[in-house]
Structure formats: C-alpha cells, structure tokens
Amino acid sequence: MAGFARSDSTSEAPDPRPARVVRIRKYESGDAEGLFEAASESIEHVFPWLEWCHPGYRLQQASEWVKRCDSLWKDGREYNFAIVDGSNRILGGCGLNQIRHEHRLANLGYWVRRSEIGRGVATAAVQELTRFAFSETNLIRLEIVVAVANEASQRVANKAGAVREGVLAARLLLHGKPHDAVLYALLRPKRSAHREPNENRSRKETDS
User: Fold this and answer.
1) Percent residues over pLDDT 90 in the chain
2) Which of 22, 100, 111, 123 has the largest count of CB atoms under 10 Å?
3) Fold of 23-207
4) Residues contacting residue 45 through CB under 8 Å, at least 6 positions apart
C-alpha cells in the first residue's frame, strides 16, 4: 500500500445519518483485514486519485502496509493513522509523508471508505491529524495537494481550515498522466512556532 501522496475523492456532501464519532490512531497488528475491507469497497472512488487502491488490491498488501507503517514511524519518515469509529471499525486512513525535516514540512493525505462518505469523517480526521503534527512533531507547514478534478477532497481541505494557495501545473502524475493540482496549506500557529514538540520535551525530561 503506497503512502498518502494525495488527497482522495472523499465526498463531504450532507448525509442524513448522525455524524460519526471519529478518532485517528496508529495502525495495529490486527488491522489488515479491516483495512482490506475498507479499501475493497472504495476502489471505484479512491483509485482515480490514489493508485494503491486498485482493483487487484489484496489482503497481503494491506498486511504489508500495516507492518511497514511501524518502521516508517520509528524512523520519522512517515506518520500514518487509521481513521476509526467508536467501535474501532476502520473508516479510512490519513497520514503525514514526504517529510522534509530541513524545512519542517510534510504532505498530508487522507481517504475514507465509500460507506462513510458525507459524514464529516475526513474533515474530523484532518483536523485531528493537524493537531498531532503541531503538538507532537516540530513541523511548521503541512501541504495538501489535490488534483483539480478532485472537487470532493478540495471541500475536505476547505472545511478542515486549510488555506488554498493556488494551482500548480502538472503537479501530480496519475495513471501515467500529468494533472494540475490545487495546493492547500496548514500552518503551525505563530505562538507555538518555536516550541519543542511534546515528544522531544518528554525525552529530555526522561533523560534528565
């Protein structure tokens, strides 16, 4: 399973069902089946924007992804999360990748399973992921890069509070073809721009 290089086609149109209780958490060893189920029902609306979610996607790939997430996290290369409801059912995924430590910058991506479209799941997940980024890492800037044609993910970015900065020509390569993309940004609040992330502070307290 590839990383979250782009946002997905997650629609946030109104849904008559009650809003979801949503949280994000690290992937766990038993998540492969739930992830495979969520991805399998979502191929039609995710595959145009995220090529890992393809018609040939298999349980083994989900299992490999769950295992890989742990090593990526430990190395500080990516921070990937499962989006879950109150019963721990996987609703989708989100994450920070393409991290450039020298500029304290990362890409933010997300996707939601088809049956949960329109319930505010993606927006809530992006907001929680943003809080994680600015409290637990030293990142200053998060970017969301969305294909111009992916209007649903653009709505999510807007609702999550990201600032639309412009359109980038041929920014994304999807299924072998270049696509223009809209660039959104989420910035660390200025008052905390020079603070250490919680994880660094806790390490110092432990070492002292």
Assistant:
1) 80
2) 111
3) Aminopeptidase (3.40.630)
4) 8, 9, 10, 11, 114, 117
